[in-house]
Amino acid sequence: MLEPFANLVKIAHRRGKFRAHEHSVENHANSDVQFMTPSVPIELRGEEEIDVVLENVIEGEEEIHKADAADYGL
Could you tell me which InterPro entries the record lists for this protein (predicted)? Predict the structure, then answer.
């Protein structure tokens, strides 16, 4: 879990539904993690402050999210 180390955790996932172990999905669903679904990261901008550009895979719309850190493929 990343929550103890951050004020806000956002997870982008390309599908609208998770296929992970049911217990893990429930733990995250009952947490303060914000899920950005169905979205994929298409660009990271910046160095000290990061902008994460996400694209909604259904509508094709892009959103920019500010971040202190970003990880891919957890």
Answer: FAD/NAD-bd_sf (IPR036188)
The burial class, CB within 10 Å (0-12 / 13-18 / 19+), for 12 is buried
Q: Which domain holds residue 42?
A: 3-67
Tens digits of residue pLDDT in 7-55: 888 887 787 666 666 766 666 666 788 888 899 999 999 988 899 999 9
Domain count, the chain: 1
- Gyration radius from the chain CA atoms: 13
Q: Are 64 and 51 in contact (CB under 8 A)?
A: yes
The Cα-based distances of 69 to 23, 27, 41, 72 in angstroms read 26, 22, 14, 10
Asked if residue 74 belongs to a domain, the reply is no
